[in-house]
Amino acid sequence: MSEAVNTLEGWFALHDFRSIDWTAWTSAPETERRQALEELKAFMNKWSDVEAGKQGSSAVFTVVGHKADIGFMHLRPTLEELEAVEAEFNKTLFAMYTMQNYSYVSVVELSNYASQAENPEEDPAIQARLKPALPKTKHVCFYPMNKKREGNDNWYMLSMEERRGMMYSHGMIGRSYSGRVTQIITGSVGLDDWEWGVTLFADDPIVFKKLVYEMRFDEVSARFGEFGTFIVGNRMTEERLDEYFAV
Ligand code: VOV
């Protein structure tokens, strides 16, 4: 039997993608629209406080294309806290104008293909990666993925050495994008329909295209990568909210 790689888990993640009922929104009375936006702003401020208190992190972004209009990525220490964020938000007036088109549940994951930390609980660099403040970049890209389990291309039948070698090459490509993109890999085996969620943050969306394309030629992606729906969006700030929702 092949040996499973050890993984470290950090905060739980919910990617929550919603479409806006624009017909209802544009025909709603102005006072109601204002109240709905005030509630959303209050939530965004609350989420900033959660981040400042190191009890989680949340990102809000608009989504380009039909898959959704607005997206939230929440990180929280427990699955219960994650559920509470979602349930609380669902009760807002703003949420009445949204429909949850898609969501993804996972947990921030680091594997030790590269190195084994002596005491990960005490290692500040590892803790910062397991419990990250989400980057405030202009753009976000999310997609779920699997590693193939077919015939000679079965990732889970490879030896640890073979997998480590391929992950090394993967990491080297990733590292050449250092400073231009930040990746947060969340594991979702047993939690959602795919094996990992990949969330990328960058100020230039072309970097998503370049990085993902370059990785397609790397063995671990070329032979074993299977990909779900890609979602790309722009960071929502309090300043941009009024403009985006203006009728
Ligand atoms: C900024 C780019 C970047 C960098 C530096 C990077 C580095 C690394 C390292 C060093 C490691 C291993 C240790 C760890 O940290 O877990 C990983 C791990 C992983 N990656 Fe990665 N990855 C990047 C980026 C990056 C992308 C764009 C993708 C999507 C692949 C594609 O084709 O679209 C990806 C996927 C993954 C996955 C699914 C895993 C877990 C695999 C497993 O079997 O466990 N990743 N990754």
Automatic annotation (TrEMBL):
Please provide the Gene Ontology terms (biological process) for this protein. Answer: heme B biosynthetic process
> Per the record, what are the reactions this protein catalyses?
Fe-coproporphyrin III + H2O2 + H(+) = harderoheme III + CO2 + 2 H2O; Fe-coproporphyrin III + 2 H2O2 + 2 H(+) = heme b + 2 CO2 + 4 H2O; harderoheme III + H2O2 + H(+) = heme b + CO2 + 2 H2O
| Entry EC number(s) | 1.3.98.5
Cofactor notes: Fe-coproporphyrin III acts as both substrate and redox cofactor.
Matching Pfam families: Chlor_dismutase (PF06778)
Keywords carried by this UniProt record: Heme, Heme biosynthesis, Iron, Metal-binding, Oxidoreductase, Peroxidase
InterPro entries attached to this UniProt entry: CHDC, ChdC/CLD, Dimeric_a/b-barrel
Question: Which amino acids does the record list as binding Fe-coproporphyrin III?
Answer: 129, 143-147, 170, 183, 221
The active-site annotation reads 143
Does the entry feature the keyword Transmembrane helix, yes or no?
Answer: no
Query: GO molecular function, one example?
Result: heme binding
Q: Which Gene3D superfamilies match?
A: Apc35880, domain 1
Pathway, per Swiss-Prot/TrEMBL?
Answer: Porphyrin-containing compound metabolism; protoheme biosynthesis
Q: What family is this?
A: Belongs to the ChdC family. Type 1 subfamily.
Q: What does this protein do?
A: Involved in coproporphyrin-dependent heme b biosynthesis. Catalyzes the decarboxylation of Fe-coproporphyrin III (coproheme) to heme b (protoheme IX), the last step of the pathway. The reaction occurs in a stepwise manner with a three-propionate intermediate.
PANTHER family in the record: COPROHEME DECARBOXYLASE, HEME-DEPENDENT PEROXIDASE YWFI-RELATED
Q: What is this protein called?
A: Coproheme decarboxylase
